[in-house]
Amino acid sequence: MNVFTGKTGYIVWPQGEMGRHTCRVYESLDEAVGAAHSKADFHHRPYDVRTAYESPVRTIKTINPRRHQ
Fold first, then answer.
1. Is there a contact between 10 and 29 (Cβ–Cβ < 8 Å)?
2. pLDDT at 3 (0 to 100)
3. Nearest-angstrom CA–CA distance, 19 and 47
4. Measured between alpha carbons, how far is 20 from 31 in angstroms, rounded to an integer?
5. What pLDDT, on a 0 to 100 scale, did the predictor assign at position 68?
6. How far is CA 67 from the centre of its chain?
C-alpha cells in the first residue's frame, strides 16, 4: 500500500543532480515554477520541476536562468 496514493505535489531540483537533498514540496505547479525561476536565476543553472509523489519521478518542466542585461 502506498501512503502517497492520491497526493499531488512538485519539487524543484537542480538539473542533472542525482544525489539526495532535503527539499520543499510545493502544492501547485505555478508555485513550483516560480521557485524554480528564482533558484535558476540566483544559481545561474537550470532547475527541473518534478513530481513529488510518483515513482519513477517525472520531470514536468525545465527552467533555465534568465539572461541579465
1. yes
2. 55
3. 14
4. 22
5. 65
6. 20
The tens digit of pLDDT for each residue in 33-53 reads: 999 999 999 999 999 999 988
Q: How far apart are CA 69 and CA 50, in angstroms?
A: 29
Q: Residue type at 68? A: H
**Helical segments of 1-69, H only:** 29-43
The DSSP annotation for 1-69 comes to: --TTTT---EEEEETT--S----PPBSSHHHHHHHHHHHHHHHTS-EEEEESS-SS--EEEEEPPPPP-
- pTM (2 d.p.): 0.80
Cell of 16: 542533472
pLDDT band of 57, cuts 50, 70, 90? confident
